[in-house]
Write a structure and sequence with these properties.
Number of helices: 5
Number of strands: 0
Number of domains: 1
Order of helices and strands: HHHHH
Distance between the termini: 25 Å
Structural class: mainly alpha
Amino acid sequence: MSPQTWLEKASEEELIEHILNRYHDTHRDQLPEMIRLAQRVERVHGSHPECPSGLSAHLETMRAELETHMAKEEQMLFPMIARGISGMARGPISVMRAEHEDHSTALARLDALTNHLDLPEDACNTWRKLYEQIATFREDLNAHIALENSVLFARIDGRTA
């Protein structure tokens, strides 16, 4: 069964379980390490003209905002959906969609801070590892948002984006 077919056939409970395991747990693992690497790059290469100054602070903000967002989903919205309380879930879903737009804005800021992950020629291994991890995080967060907006939430509010 293709991933697309699975998404179409999966129950809301299966989608929620997938989101929790694949994305929420993953983001909680990704962000602390990216913050640590960003702090190191900023500390060691602060005088480099292409140093992503402010990156670690931005990642800290993203971590806090994502943690708050995911907690709302885990503690309030997902249990409502799993219990079939779709009508009451529409309000929280509209809030989650707005927060997803905020996360997309934060990703755009991440791109600006890192010059779209364009490494300088003399970038050290830590800097390279940081940008590799940011690229993976960006892909994961975009896929996470798309899955919630276009599949799970769309089943409840009829909006596909």
